[in-house]
Structures are given as structure tokens and as C-alpha cells.
Amino acid sequence: MPGSASPELLEARIRGLQHALGQLLENARRLTQGEHQRAVRLHRQLQEQTAIARRESRALVDAKTAEALSEAEPKARLLADRLAPGLGSIPPNDARWRSRQLVGAGVPSYVRVGELDAGTPVVAPLLQTNGWKVTADRNENARRLLQSTALRLIAAAEPFRLRVDAFDPRLTGMMGLLGHLTTKYPQLVPRATHTAEQLHTVLSGLVDVSSLRASRQAQLGHERFEDLLKETGQVTDPYRLVILFDYPFGIDTLAQRDLLRLAATAGKRGICFLVHYDASTAAQLDVDSKQLLELLNPVVISNDRVEVAQLPPARLDPPFDATIAAGICDVIAERAEIAVLPTIDFERTLPDRSTWWQPVKDEISAVIGYDDRTPALVRLRSGNPALPHVLVGGAVGQGKSNLLLVLIHGLAARYAPADLEMYLLDFKHGVEFSALGPGPDRPHWLPQVRVLGVHSDRAFGLAVLRHLSDELARRSEIFKSHGNVADIAELAPGPERPARILVVLDEFQVLLEDDDELADEAAKLLERLVRLGRAYGVHVVLATQTIEGVKRLSTRRDSIFGQVPYRVALKTTPADSQAILRSGNTAAAELQFRGEAVLNANFGSPDDNQHVLVSFADKPVLDSLRRELWSRAGSEAHPPRVFHLAEPAHLTETAAAVKPEFGRPWTGLPIAVTEEPVSVEVRPEPGAGVLVLGDGPADALGVLTGLAVSTAAAAVDPPRFVFVDGTNSAPVAAEGKDALVQVLRELGCEVETVDKHDDIAPRLFALREAMRTGQAGGTYLLGFGFHGVPRMQVHAEGYFESPANALQDIVRDGPAQGLITYGWWNRMHVCTEQLGYGRANVATHLFLRHPQDGVRAVAGPLVRWASEPHRGLLWDGLHPEAQVVVPFAALRADEVDRTVELVRR
């Protein structure tokens, strides 16, 4: 191509350019390498400077942090001690755990979960929250935290202010650390439950507790349980801590339902949950574990570190030493033993004196205590609604007798004796009722009491039931005479309306516990009384420690208790709580203190439980009240019929109330409501006299005393008494015991002389007539221990007959001639040896402690006689059945004249 460079020239130019570019690149490389080296050196310098600055800064921060922590640690410890007082924040196994002073310092709302590395305790809120859900990388760590938390809370709380219920379905035994308390005070820490059925019972009870607290809080306008406690001062309602190990293992849909209901408002109701959540456990079908866990505050344990929201991570505490835990549990039990429940004075339950003894309208009622600040009222009425009778139960020493005294005296202050009569029987060996009647140093008594059985026996209880059954029949006739009224409330107040009757049978099951005819009749009469008594104004209070195992009640339980709507249960076992209240109602087992009670007016329905604190019936206060009521009653205050088990009758009291009839001397008192003594026919005729047979010198002397005193008091002219003592219990004449034989022979000669002189027959006839009318006293031989008179069968010089022959003449022929014998032998066969086979034709026998064979030989083969002290069986041959009597106590010498004078008046 013309004008163009040659190829060689172009190649030369390209090579020149490549060389120039190579030089340029080399220069750039050298320049870049130098800059890079400078940059590396600068970076290293900066790193060294930064490291130096960081070290200096960290040292400064660490110093500042250490300074801040050292200043904050005392404050943190003080705060922890304030939030979790006493043992709530002290490390496990610390020496202070052995201090008795720290036990029961107060209910802590916070509790220790661990400590910081510096030893500062970390406490977290618990009791006033719904509770914790605890998760852990190892289940034993979670269980350990729950265990230690329970021990801390129960140790820190005042006695009976906290209760711990645990569910341990895998039987880990973690609650065994509190085993001493479980044994001594199960109401504080019950034995852990393991089955779904047991858990249902616990949760069902808690639902009732939560519901009752919600009602109280709403009534008083309080949002939280703590505010309710401050307002009412109620210490009988504890915080409730519920521990669930290995949740959701063992939880069914029913338990889950109750858990959700409770946990939703637990913090406001004084209920708190400690739930160990085991994520490896699959929940049962229809149990969504997240629903419960979302209601609780999370606590996470990982690598022995505990994390709680808004708190620094803490080191998990080591487990408690078992010895220390046992020691603390013993101290807690000791504190619980002496814990005293605040009492309510009995006077606080009484109305104003101006309202005492107002006329009865539709019911009788009394306040027995308080439910918080609300009076707990027992209303006894026949209708609208019918609340006629009461069942009272409770374990030994829990205040049953006190409750009965409160009820009795509360009613006595409100209703006059003309409107209310009381029949009070105590079948146990107590003395609570004894002060309600007159005594040697107590001239006053409760004027409403008609019958008072102190240490009553079953026979007297049956007699009272028979009397009350007759009273129902009498009132039925009164109702018919007023136009067939159906209820005592329909009768207008006035003298024609019968008084209401309160029947209190303490330990009533004693009447029914033996398998005999008495128990069968008592059960029938009791059933009739509670069934018909309502309309006739008869109200029955049945009190007992337990009614389990009573055979007669097993067949009549519904027919008797079905008529008893009121149930009052003091602290007792779950089984007895259900027996007294109703099946499934274990509320009485949840009670904490003596004097607490569950009052229920709807046949024990759990929905109608009323938690009350019974007032305290102080003895001086009650005695002062009885004296005041007795004075107010004036002439209406008639002494009650008082009956004592295994005690003789009091002749002086009987003499003051009853006038004897000549020819009908007294052998004792009947086992009956009536105060009329049991008398026998003793006329100046063949067969007259009384043979007292059996062991018991004191009772025998009492029988002879009653016979002699009543005979002497009924006669116009003083009778002649000849006393023969064959027991050597009285001084004998100087001539010795032969004098006793001499007396018998002389009396025998008197009888024999009369028989041989027919010319004195008119005088004898006149004597008998005088004795029949009481104008002549006659002669009475009182033989005390004829079995001990010596030489009864010996024919002494100058006598053709033995003393025994003389005694036969006296007993057989003496009555027709004005000589009557009252004699005692310790055995019937001895009496028969001395008097002959027919026992001198005497018809009246009174047996003391005598073998049954001898009793049946006289009274018939069907007679049953259980020999008892101060009891006699009277057989006179005139009545179809033998009668049990209570012999009088023998009088002292200085009492005889006074008693005779009382009888004469």
C-alpha cells in the first residue's frame, strides 16, 4: 500500500510500547509494595495501640465494677433478707439453720434460688405469684430446687400459715426431706400423692378454697388474698403451695382442668404452684402442657446455673443435709405444738341482755363463733327450711365439748326455762356437764336443764329416749286438741304451747355400740325421735368422735342422719370428716387449729361449707352466766334430774323433793327421768321384809339406810330399829359378838311369846292396824351382814333353838306382829341356809353383785343381770319384770336427822 509503514517498522513500534508498559508496571509494583508495607506497619502499630488501650480500659472497668459490686453487695444482702426473711435466704447447711429463733419468722413472698459468685443471695418472687415452671438440663437439679424451696418456705412461715401439697407420680421421694412433719403434722405437709385419683381430691379441695376466698374478697372489696388477711386477721386460712414433680407425667384431663382453673388466679387467692416441667415426657391426649406453663414464671437451670427473668444468673445451691432438715422439721413441729389460735370470747356471741328470754317464734338459735367477722349462727327450726337437728364430730382434744357448752349456754341466755328444756347426756368419762347442775359447793344451776346425765350409762340413755318418745305422744294429743296443727310453730305462744326441747347426746354411739337388745331399742327410739321430733319442737344434737364401726348405725345411717341437716366438724381425719359431713367432703381434715370447725347446714354438701372459729367458753364466765340465769329464773329454777354413772343416789336430795308413803319404803332411785324413788310394799303381813343379796357392803348399807330413813319419816310415831352388824364394821358391845346372837334370840323370844299367848291377839290386831295407817312405828330389824353373824347354828346352853332358828321366826312370823326385817347377805345360798328353803316366805329380793344363776333362781330364767357397782336388781314378785335401781349412798351420822326431817316436811 503506498505511503504505509512497512511491517518491520510496525513491529518495532509495538515492541517499544511493550517495553514502556513493562517499565511502567514495574514502577507501579514497586510503589504499591512500598505502600503496602507501610500500611502493614501502620496496622500493626494500631493493633498494638488498641490492645494497650483495651487492657487499660478493661482494668479500669474491672476496677469500677469491683468497686460498684463491693458497694452494692451489702445492699443486695439486706434486700434479700427483707424480701426473704429468716431462713428464706440463708444458704443450705449454714450454721444459722440450727437456730430456733429464725424458725417461723414470717411468711416470705420471695425465696432464694441460689447465689452469685461473690456469695450474694439471689431471691425471686414466689408466694404472691401464680408460681414457677422449672426446667433443667438434669431433672435432679429441678427436683432439688423444688425440694429446697418447700423446706425454706415451711421453715420461714409462722406455724399453720403455709401448707405444702406435693404430687410425685414417679415416686422420687423428694418430699421425704420433710418426712418428720408429714408424720407429726400432716395438716402442714401431707404425704405426697402419687395417683391421679389422689391428685383429684387435692385439687378439688383447692378449687373449693379458691372459690371461698374469691367470695370473701369480693364481699369485702379486696383484690388479693393478702389484703383479706390484713382486713380480717384470719390466721386459720393458710397459703397453699402445690408442688408438681415431672409434669405432665401422671396428669389427666380432669387434673389439667382444675390446674388451669386454679393457676389462672392463684396469685390473688393465696395459692402458688411449683411445677417441674420434664420436656422429655409426653403429655396425655387432650392435655396441653403449654396452657399451664404459660401461666407460670419461668425458672431455667443449666450447668448448675439458675436463670430467672430480670435477675442475674445464679449458682444453684447444693442439696440440704438430711440431718439439718430433720432438725428443722422437729423445731417446726415444736412451734406448731405450742401455736395458739386467737380466741373469740364467749361473751361476744351473746345478745344484749335486754333481749334475753324473749318468746320463741319459729326457731331457736345461737351464735357459736365467727366466720371472719360474720357470726356463725345455728338455727334450729322445723320448717322453711327444716333445720331441726345437729351432728357434731371431731377428733379427741379438738374442742367438741367446748362447742357443746357454747351452744347450750348461748341458747340458755336467749330462751327462758318455760320456752326451752334441755336433756343433756354425756356418755364419755368427762366432767364438762357436771357444772350445769347443782353441787355441794354450787347451789345454782342452769335453769333450763331438766335432765343431766354425767357419765351416763346406756340404761339411763335408753330411759331418756323412752321418756322423750312418750313426750312426742303427749304433744301429739296437744296438737290434736288444737285442731290438728302439724307444727309447734303454729301454736300461739302461751302456757298451752309446750316448750322446745334440746337433747344433747355426747358420744351417742355408746348407746348403739353393743350387740344387744338395748342397742336395738335405742336405735329405733333415736330414729323415731329425729324423724318426728322436728314437728313437735324436739331438737337433737348428736356428738361423737367417730361413728365408724358402729353396727347399729350401718343399717340406720340414712334414716337417722338423713334427718340431720346441720353438720359441725372440728379437725379430724379425712375418713371421719367424710363420715360426719358427707362422702367426698374432707374439709375438716384441712383444719389447722383446735376450735376451728366446718359448719354446714345442707347435709354436708361441700359447696355449703362454712369455715368458723368457735368461741371459747371460759369456765368462770359460764359459771357467772349460770348464776345470773338461775337468779333470773327464781322459783322456776327447779333442780334437774342428775344421773351419775357408777355413783350411788343421794338420799338427802331425794328426801328434799319427795315425801314417802308409810308402808312403801325406798330401795333407791330408778334409772329413769323421774325422780320418784323405787318403793316396795312392806305391810305387817306374812312375807313382808326385804332380802338384800350380793357383794357390796357400801351399796347394801345404802339400801338399808334408804329403807330405814323412809320408814322412819313416814311413821307418825317413831319406829324402833334394832341394828345387827355381822361384818365387824361397827363397835360391838363389851360382851363381844355373842351379843349379836343374844339380840336375835331375844327378838325371837318376843315373837315366840306372842305366838303362845292367844289372849293378846286383839292387841296384835290393833297394832297391825296402827302400822297400816302409820300411827304406830313398829319394830325393824336391820341386819347388816347376817352372813357374818357368828355361831348361827350352835345350840347354846339355856336355849333349845339356834340363833338361825330364831332368825327364821323373826323373818317369817315377825311381820304379822309388827317386827319386820331388812337384811343383807353376801350370797343367796347363805341366806337360804339361815332362813330355810323358802327364805321365810319373803317375796322382795334386791340383788347387788351376785352370780346370775342365783338371780335367775328367784326372778326367772330369762333375767339378765350384769353386776355393776352402785346398781341393784329389785324383784318383788308382783311385777312381771325385775327393775334396776340405784342404791342410796349411806348417810353419815350427822346427816340422818336432817334427812329424816327433810322427808317429814
From TrEMBL:
Specify which residues bind ATP according to the UniProt entry for this protein. 394-401
Q: Name one GO molecular function term.
A: DNA binding
Where are the annotated coiled coils located? none
Q: Which UniProt keywords apply?
A: ATP-binding, Nucleotide-binding
User: Could you tell me which Gene3D superfamilies the record lists for this protein?
Assistant: P-loop containing nucleotide triphosphate hydrolases
Judging by the UniProt lineage, the source's domain of life is Bacteria
Stretches assigned to the FtsK domain: 373-579
UniProt name for this protein: FtsK/SpoIIIE family protein
